[in-house]
Amino acid sequence: MAIVDVSEMWSKKGGSVDSQLRNPFDQSFAFTRGFQVLCDTINESEVDVALADGIPRTGDSHPSGINAYVTSKRVIPVGPIFWMVEVGYEGETPDPATVEVEWSDVSTTEPIDRDWNGRAIVTANGEQVEGLSVEISDQVVIIRRRYATINTYAIRQYRRSTNSDTFLGWPPGTARLLQFSAKNKFTFGGPQEAWDVTARIQFREPLANTTAEQAWYKRWRHEGLLIRDGGVIRRATDEFQQEVTKPVLLTATGEQETDPDAAVFIHSQVYGSLPYSALGLV
């Protein structure tokens, strides 16, 4: 009990190539091939015939080399020991240069201690006003494109880095990768098709007294309970020579600063710096 012969039928070859009106380079393929199978007994099942040597396996590529793969088999009995198998291929080949770019906004609430003109927000007696915030709208770009392969280990570095180069017109330090997702669907043992990647990048407008390179730095006012007094570091005191319970402003060298408009701000780097052009998104 066995398969005696498998041969391809030239009369069953066929197919179609379709493209989208929006992007004629994005094409989809559908092809068929036919095979005749001769058995030595009537006991062969449809499964035996579909899996016979010489019948393409699910996931096999089209012999022409085009980006289409076996997705279906139709087994048709013709006689007691004679069968016909129609093999269906499907696939698509999008233009690798096609990139979708979508711009939008995202709003965040950030604490502030300076007004629009850069002056300290203080009371009439020079005391700092705390708890104020402002809503900031940052631009966000969503880029979608297809890659043949991806390296998630290399991409991980960008999740903790800002751009070291000019990216989409924005200067170094202003862009940060917020999201990178990739989707692929393939058959085990079959070809691994391209990855559909979506990247989401936020651009931060620098606040007052902050440079573009420091847009994603953590900005904090230089203040504390301890001050430098000559060569000694001691607890700051008020006008009654009582130790303060709230931080006081400090100069760059640690002395007490009494002028709110002369407050020193420190910018602490919390992200690395990498060339975003190396991501190959645009």
Features:
282 residues, 4-stranded antiparallel beta sheet, single chain, 44% strand, 3 domains, mainly beta, rod-shaped, 2 helices
The helix/strand series, from N terminus to C terminus, equals EEHEEEEHEEEEEEEEEE
- Oligomer kind: single chain
Rg (C-alpha, Å): 34 Å
Distance between the termini: 59 Å
Q: Structural class of the secondary elements?
A: mainly beta
What characterizes the major β-sheet? 4 strands, antiparallel
Integer count of domains: 3
Q: How large a portion of the residues is in β-strands, by DSSP E?
A: 35-45%
Number of DSSP strand runs: 16
Low-confidence stretches: none
User: What order do the strands of the largest sheet run in, or round the barrel if closed?
Assistant: 1-2-4-3
Helix content: under 10%
- Number of helical runs? 2
- Name the overall outline: rod-shaped
Overall pLDDT score: 87
What would you note in describing this structure?
With 282 residues, the protein is mainly beta. The protein folds into three domains: 3-93, no CATH class; 99-216 and 270-279, no CATH class; 223-262, no CATH class. The protein contains two helices and 16 strands. It has helices spanning 46-50, 152-155; strands at residues 3-19, 27-39, 69-79, 82-93, 99-111, 133-147, 161-163, 175-183, 195-203, 218-221, 223-224, 226-229, 232-235, 248-249, 265-268, 272-274. The strands form six sheets. Strands 1-2-4-3 form a four-stranded antiparallel sheet. A four-stranded antiparallel sheet has the order 5-6-9-8, with no helix packed on it. A two-stranded parallel sheet has the order 7-16. The longest helix is centred in the N-terminal third of the chain and has 5 residues, at 46-50.
